[in-house]
Specification:
- This protein is mostly helical.
- The protein has 2 domains: 90 residues, Fumarate Reductase Iron-sulfur Protein, Chain B, domain 2 (Orthogonal Bundle), CATH 1.10.1060.10; 29 residues, no CATH class.
- Helix content is 51%, strand content 0%.
- The protein is built from 8 helices and no strands.
- Helix 1 crosses helix 6.
- The radius of gyration is 15 Å and the shape is globular.
- The mean pLDDT is 90.
Length: 124
């Protein structure tokens, strides 16, 4: 177990090394086409201790729809792993979006709950 895998496991309560790379998670993901690496690859990167997984757009694009969780034959909660990776990034006080850079129409076009949720998810 690598330091990265250990940290992610501690935060998420999930053991990424249980994945045997069947690809069911990526095959079922409704937004995999928009991701720079699919969920299966994220798990592989975790297993290998590849810290560049923290720099992927995938961890921010994951909608936590739980499709991957429900289809995984090993019962791995991939959405919890994605959340743990986001938390690790945010704990470095690295903001994924900057509120001051949002265009003014964001505040009028989007429901307030969307803006609040985005601030909680994407800012350190």
């Amino acid at each position: 177990m690598t330091a990265l895998t250990d940290t992610v496991s501690r935060i998420s309560g999930v053991e990424p090394e249980l994945c045997y790379q069947c690809g069911t998670c990526s095959a079922g993901c409704p937004i995999v086409e928009r991701m720079d690496v699919g969920p299966r690859r994220v798990l592989l990167m975790l297993q290998q201790g590849d810290e560049s997984v923290l720099e992927t757009e995938t961890i921010w694009l994951c909608a936590a729809c739980y499709t991957c969780d429900s289809r995984c034959p090993r019962g791995i909660r991939i959405s919890a792993l994605m959340e743990a990776l986001r938390q690790m990034t945010l704990r470095k006080n690295t903001d994924h979006i900057r509120p001051e850079e949002l265009p003014p129409e964001t505040h009028t076009d989007l429901p307030p709950i969307t803006v609040v949720a985005a601030m909680r998810k994407y800012t350190g």
